[in-house]
Amino acid sequence: MKNIVNHMEQGKQATLGMQKNVVNQKTYSYIPYLLVGLAFGIVFVKSEVISWFRIQEMFRLQSFHMFGVIGSAVAVGMLSVWLIKKYEIKTMHGEPIVFKPKKFNKGQIYGGLIFGLGWGLTGACPGTLFAQIGSGASVVAVVLLSAIAGTWIYGKIRESLPH
Amino acid sequence: MIELLKQPWPWYVAGPLIGLTVPALLILGNKHFGISANLRHACAACFPGNISFFKYDYKKELWNVWFAVGILLGGFLASWLLMNASPIQLNPKLVEELAGYGITDFSNMIPTQLYSWDHLLTWKGMLMLVGGGLLIGFGSRYAGGCTSGHSIMGLSTLQWPSLVATISFMLGGFVMANWILPLLIN
Questions:
Q1: Which of A51, A35, A55 is nearest to A135 (CA)?
Q2: Domain assignment of residue B94, yes or no
Q3: In whole angstroms, what is the distance from residue A135 CA to residue A50 CA?
Q4: Is residue B107 part of a domain?
Q5: pLDDT grade for B38, boundaries at 50, 70 and 90
Q6: pTM to 2 decimal places
Q7: A135: chain B residues, CB-CB within 8 Å
Q8: A window 32-71, beta carbon within 8 A of B
Q9: What ipTM was reported for this prediction?
Q10: Nearest residue of B to residue A101, measured between CA atoms
Q11: What is the span of the domain harbouring residue B78?
């Protein structure tokens, strides 16, 4: 019994230690993510993925460009994930890489359609909003703030929506 | 070299680079590519209200906020150092259609004749900027992700719910661009 209590106490301390680690995580440990984002933002601008006009072309089936971008991104993503699984590649810190399966719910259809309407209207998805603002289209900050408001409204009425 | 980089990048360069974000984030720290979650983190950090959906430890997800800041800086750097002065090359059919709505300026990534601070207080501008933003934020969270989380990350890991979401995104966009938007901006 004493052993079990001791064990639990140790577990509790370990959990506390882990929480502290997360909170105290040094700012510089985030820099790699900033750099990956930076590269991503440059690609977004230079491939014109952030262009309202390119998105209009895509949805009118008038150009292959966007389908090529999304298709080849998925192909490279799939191949990378397959290689990671096959060779059991670990993270930089030596942890095994874990994948979480997504569960189906009706939100993926209803929410997906609503998001699509917004995508077709503004020519933007959450990622391109940041790149558009960075490239100097300051009015897009209004779209970003509205998107945050839209997320808040979803959180507020979530329980009463079909899922 | 710089001159080459200033040209618009073809899809077969841009797409694979975007795809590499998936393994980069996994290898850096088991992070799953997805951007719309940042909108939720913003709610959790700034105005969680008393809503259970916003009561979680968003500080564990700070990497994603830094990632988004990186995208913003990347947008700034690319348009500052690698700007291409010539206007975007579009399908002539689109140019013709847009001209019919009075959209003739193709020098920016956004149609400034619809989409600017001056238009914010007109009903069209309000509808596009505020209405569009609400649809993006509400829809992406309802769907559990956006083009990055579902269409790139989800499809890369062969998640069929992400395929359902991607098809829904495309359908919604198709309906908006072909049937609703022309009525709104005409």
A1: A51
A2: no
A3: 10
A4: no
A5: very high
A6: 0.91
A7: 75-76, 78-79, 109
A8: 32-60, 62-71
A9: 0.96
A10: B159
A11: 1-83
